[in-house]
Specification:
Largest sheet: 4 strands, antiparallel
Distance between the termini: 64 Å
Structural class: alpha+beta
Helix content: 10-25%
Strand content: 35-45%
CATH architecture: 2-Layer Sandwich
CATH class: Alpha Beta
Number of strands: 6
Shape: elongated
Radius of gyration: 17 Å
Strand order of the largest sheet: 2-3-5-6
CATH superfamily: GTP cyclohydrolase I, C-terminal domain/NADPH-dependent 7-cyano-7-deazaguanine reductase, N-terminal domain
């Protein structure tokens, strides 16, 4: 008979390096010369894997940004975020990874990525990271 402390899922998580930004597609923002806008995107079905336990991490990713020349094509963003599904990555690294990739592709004026993660062991976590272009 097993000791409960020895129980662990038989699961191997993919490393964060498997996530690629090359599927993110930028499209022109047609009103760039007329006005700034704030775009907010919510992905309420985000999943990844805890790198310590192999247990699933679930949450909502919120991306808010002020575009410059381009905006994100939403289907490409959906497929990009699906890459995290089997990746072992900490919450704090998730939002930084997403921010770095989106900033590299879109070069926005300002961007904020927030991860609102569901409770685990009675603890909820919300992690936010920002980018602001300097002149």
């Amino acid at each position: 008979m097993s000791n409960f402390t020895d129980l662990k899922p038989k699961y191997t998580a993919d490393p964060p390096e498997t996530i690629t930004r090359d599927m993110l597609a930028a499209i022109p923002y047609g009103f760039r010369s007329e006005r700034d806008i704030l775009i907010t995107i919510r992905q309420p079905e985000y999943t990844s894997v805890c790198p310590m336990t192999g247990l699933p991490d679930v949450g909502c990713i919120v991306i808010a940004y002020r575009p410059d020349e381009t905006i994100i094509e939403l289907k490409s963003l959906k497929y990009y975020l699906l890459q995290f599904r089997n990746v072992g990555i900490f919450y704090e690294h998730v939002v930084n990874h997403i921010l770095d990739d989106l900033v590299a592709v879109l070069q926005p004026k300002w961007m904020e990525v927030t991860g609102e993660f569901t409770p685990r062991g009675g603890i909820t976590s919300t992690v936010t990271v920002q980018y602001e272009r300097t002149v």
